[in-house]
Amino acid sequence: MLSQLRWLFIPALALQATALSLKGPKFAVTSAKASIVRAEPIDLDAPLTTVNVGKTENLRVSFTVLGDDGNPVRPHQAFLRMVDEKSGEEGIQPVKVGKDGKGKVEISVSRPPVSLPPTSENPLSVSLILGSFTHSPRTVPLFNLRLPPSAPVTPHAQEKHYAPQPLIAHKFNPEPSQPPKVVSATFAVIALAPWLVLAGLLSQISTPLDISSKALSYTGPFLSLLVALEGLLFVYWVKLRLFQVLTYGLVLAVLATGAGKRALVWKSTATK
């Protein structure tokens, strides 16, 4: 609970906090053999100077962070921001600051860090960003940095496959039209015709039908499975797919065959 309240008080403390300051900021340009090419202190009140660094040279920036009482302070975050004002390319390099407030960052041009943005003929504006929970954040402009232009990027052989492609215009088939009601009714009558024929033939049988419970125990399952097959065709017309109908129809056909054979065996024995 106390840790949560602490975060609530941070914005209020930041309003009353004082800004951090820098002591003795300086830069140095060194050669590949570690000899000093140029080393100067950074005057924060003067116009920004331009620092030129060659292909085989290194840049080192050092400073000390002070609090409002003049004592060294270790900020919670420190970054070196390098931005090309014309192209908008930007890079952020974290800076490690010790407990004594001293920070140092070194950039090798021959082995540039991933944070270094692409360079051109335009210089990079370099500034130091400091952040702290107990002090107001501060951005300190340091100098303009001129580096050798970056090598042009060689297009990848597969680059064209990942570039924006022309818009695909999908063409959908029109909705299938429904047949006339007369045609639908005609085929419905054709589908029901076997049942009409069966009903007509049953009326021509002179022997009365045996509707006893024993007879229905043999003929009932067979007739029920026939009705189920007809119902399956109706459901297929409504929502089922062909593979589903074939699966269910195979099961019902096997059961109907067994039930029909059982009914015929009973009928043959009952008439003897």
UniProtKB/TrEMBL annotation:
Q: Which InterPro entries match?
A: Ribophorin_II_3rd (IPR055374), Ribophorin_II_C (IPR056790), Swp1 (IPR008814)
Q: In which pathway does it act?
A: Protein modification; protein glycosylation
A single GO CC term for this protein reads: oligosaccharyltransferase complex
Q: What is the topology of this protein in the membrane according to its UniProt annotation? A: Multi-pass membrane protein
Listed GO biological process terms: protein N-linked glycosylation
Residue stretches spanning the membrane: 182-203, 215-237, 243-264
Q: What is its main location?
A: endoplasmic reticulum
Please give the superkingdom of this protein's source. Answer: Eukaryota
Give the Ribophorin II C-terminal domain ranges. Answer: 172-265
Keywords, alphabetical: Endoplasmic reticulum, Membrane, Signal, Transmembrane, Transmembrane helix
Tell me the compartments it is located in: Endoplasmic reticulum membrane
**UniProt signal peptide:** 1-19
Q: Where is the Ribophorin II third domain?
A: 50-101
Keyword Cell membrane set for record: no
Family statement: Belongs to the SWP1 family.
Q: What does the protein in this record do?
A: Subunit of the oligosaccharyl transferase (OST) complex that catalyzes the initial transfer of a defined glycan (Glc(3)Man(9)GlcNAc(2) in eukaryotes) from the lipid carrier dolichol-pyrophosphate to an asparagine residue within an Asn-X-Ser/Thr consensus motif in nascent polypeptide chains, the first step in protein N-glycosylation. N-glycosylation occurs cotranslationally and the complex associates with the Sec61 complex at the channel-forming translocon complex that mediates protein translocation across the endoplasmic reticulum (ER). All subunits are required for a maximal enzyme activity.
Protein name as catalogued:
Ribophorin II
The organism encoding this protein is: Rhizoctonia solani
- Lineage, uppermost ranks: Eukaryota, Fungi, Dikarya, Basidiomycota, Agaricomycotina
